[in-house]
Each structure stands twice: as C-alpha cells, then as structure tokens.
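Example for tutorial group B:
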C-alpha cells in the first residue's frame, strides 16, 4: 500500500463503514460515507494521521443513517461530493466514469444504480480497491424495495461494473452486519448467494426478502438529500435523529 494512508471505521448503530483514503505524499485525503454522529471521531483521526481532508463523498443517498458530509465541510473546509443522479445537494456532482483526484491518488466513479438511482462504486485502481456502497456487500447486496430500487438494474450494475474488475480487487462495502470487513471481486463472483444466480432468480430473491421498513429512512433521507446537518453533532439534531424526527423545511 505504498503511497496510501487507509483507515476503515465503523458505526455500530447503523453498521456503517466509513473509509479514509489519504495520499502519503501530499497528505490530501478523502472520506467515504461518513456518519453524522461520528464526525468528531473522523476529524480526530484525520488530524492524527496528519492529513488534510479535501473531499467528503457519499456512495449514495443513504436511508439508514444521516451523513456527516456537511458537518465535515464546516469543520475542515472540504468539498462534498455525490452522484448527479442522486438529485441530492453537494458541492460537486459526479457522472459515470468521472475521476476524483486526491493528491497522487485517483478514484474512478462507476455508476452502479439499482439500490438507488444515484449509487456509485469508487474504484482505486492503483491499489486494487473498490468501495461499493450498498450495491455490493459481503455475500449480499443492497435491498431494492424502496427509494428507486430495481433488482434487475442492480444485477446488471454489479455484473457489468464491479464483477468486471480484476478478481483480486478488494471489495469494501458501506455495511456489514456479521463483523466482516472486506471481500474480493473473486469471492463475491463465486460465493455471493444472490448475485451468483441468474437474473430471473435474483429478481425473485429480491422480491421475497420480506424486510422490515427501514428504521431510519424517514429522518435519514430528508437530511441526506440536503447533504446532512451543517452543525457538528448538535445536541438537538442528535435528539431529533434518535427520535426519527425529520428536519424542518
């Protein structure tokens, strides 16, 4: 991992992984999928690593936690990024195949819709890493029964945009609920119990998951469409999030 500063952080409430990617030469950094309640932790980690945060990115408009991107902008002066297709607010918007430069590092943004319209996978080709958000998870994938979910679209996204990467590339998802931290393209092509099926079988599986209504969707999506709260870990906002109270218009 020459030239790369990398940390994987975890929020136990939402089982969300947050990733810090830094250039070891220029000390510029990006953070992927930050959680609002963990902004102080993330800022402290970035400082301890002697990094300067340039970008805060979301893989998509999350429904299970409130993003920390706007609060990180307030604290660090970074720019926030999300896909244009998400229709959410940010400083910068990405289209398919566009690049994000972080010092000497470069992330490729690959459009991988299906969980939501705006899902993106960020690929760090130089170090064989892909950050797949909720499109591809470890032995699983994101649900397709809310927001703009489309099982067939997700199937094609993963097979064409993620499984087409070199098999040795590491897969870093936005969540895991069983304590696993990473996978690989090869492992998921061989062992993912959903995405190894045919498209028809996959669509049937996704239609019959029988999942509960997402606990935080009513507060998370309205906040995340506006890039999250700008104030760092405000007590009143934290209480509202805990109570599933969406932001005022």
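The residue assignment follows.
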């Amino acid at each position: 991992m020459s030239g790369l500063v990398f940390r994987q952080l975890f929020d136990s409430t939402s089982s969300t992984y947050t990733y810090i990617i830094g250039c070891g030469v220029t000390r510029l950094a990006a953070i992927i999928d930050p959680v609002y309640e963990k902004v102080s932790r993330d800022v402290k980690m970035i400082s301890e690593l002697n990094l300067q945060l340039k970008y805060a990115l979301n893989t998509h408009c999350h429904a299970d936690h409130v993003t920390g991107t706007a609060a990180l902008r307030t604290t660090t002066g970074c720019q926030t990024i999300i896909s244009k297709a998400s229709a959410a607010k940010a400083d910068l918007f990405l289209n398919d195949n566009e690049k994000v430069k972080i010092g000497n590092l470069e992330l490729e943004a690959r459009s991988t819709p299906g969980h939501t319209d705006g899902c993106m996978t960020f690929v760090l080709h130089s170090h064989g890493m892909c950050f797949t958000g909720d499109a591809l998870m470890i032995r699983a994938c994101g649900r397709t029964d809310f927001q703009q979910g489309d099982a067939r679209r997700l199937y094609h996204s993963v097979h064409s945009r993620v499984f087409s990467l070199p098999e040795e590339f590491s897969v870093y998802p936005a969540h895991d609920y069983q304590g696993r931290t990473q996978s690989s393209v090869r492992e998921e092509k061989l062992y993912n119990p959903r995405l190894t099926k045919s498209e028809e079988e996959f669509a049937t599986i996704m239609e019959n998951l029988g999942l509960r209504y997402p606990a935080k969707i009513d507060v998370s999506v309205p906040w995340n469409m506006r890039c999250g709260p700008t104030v760092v870990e405000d007590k009143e906002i934290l209480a509202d999030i805990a109570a599933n109270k969406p932001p005022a218009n």
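Residues 151-162 form the longest helix (12 residues). Compare this with the pattern of hydrophobic and polar residues in the output above.
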